[in-house]
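Hi all, a correction to my earlier message: I attached the wrong file for NADP-dependent oxidoreductase domain-containing protein. Here's the right sequence:
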Amino acid sequence: MSPTAAAADTTAAEGMVYTRLGQTGLHVSRIILEWDLWVLDADKALPIMKAAWDAGINTFDTADVYSNGESEQILGRFLRKHQIPQSQMIITTKGDFHVAIDDMKMMGLSRKHIFDAVDASLARLGTDYIDLYQIHRWDYNTPIVETMEALHDLVKLGQVCYIGTSSMHAWQFAKAQFIAKQRGWTPFVSMKNLYNAGYREEERDMILLCRDLGVGVITWSPLARSLLTRKTGTVRAKSDMSREFMFGKTNAAECEQTTNDMVVAHVRTIAEKRGVSMARVAIAWLVNRPGVTAPIVGINKPEDIEDMIAALHLQLTADETKEIDDAWAGRVLPEARRRVRVAGRGGLLRQ
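and the right structure:
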């Protein structure tokens, strides 16, 4: 059963829920699927994509840099294999980084690179347009005026329907939106940022700004790279890397003791009492946060899709929500904020 357009925050029984992206008329599924062939090869990705589509997920997120363009190619292959009209699927992709070439000058948010990157993404996807085109990171080497005008022109050319952005400082986002409004150009309609029960720095400024401007918030790493699914006494290299990734080497151990362990423990306790997975509890907490449109989830096997959709219908009690909320230490983490929003081009972050 393919997804269909729906009114804001609508659902069919216990299935997928749809909502508007910010103040646009675009209806997205409240679970967005993302995959990366660095983690999952094409033979495994295609069945997951089909299961997600059949379950009602109508929004698929990728980026030109994911596996040097192969991720976009696989999405295009999926559309053609199952004869899915582009009008029924919402495709979101991103540009900024260099793809499959060594020349580092061929990256960033200059007018030339944006136009070249969109043409290349369209060729890999095999589509006529991109529903939501996002800039992957802020470009300190290109005036934002040049970037915003180029994005506006792409919308007017019909190659892009909406534009969004990802992981930057609130002042940068506000500046870009102000320039667009001042000059009558297309503004950003979405912000893709790092936000989960174990990392809530975005609540200080970015999410408040997005709510005030009516911008949709789509969150990456909703499970903190599996940290929020960690069982008692288990040791996972990926989870340990996630803790350092979000909090930095210098204070990773301290934050683990004061924040992460407490958050994970509460998520685990609630999951055990409810008889559900920790992932379901973490996603349920996230989708009910003010301003959040949808989390972007990476799924490794088709059966995980049902669990993610079920999270949309799991209603945490006020006490359960408070337990998770109170575990957040609310400390200022300048190193983490710098790493998340600025360091992406060095290969540290590619979400």
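Sorry for the mix-up. The longest strand covers residues 160-166.
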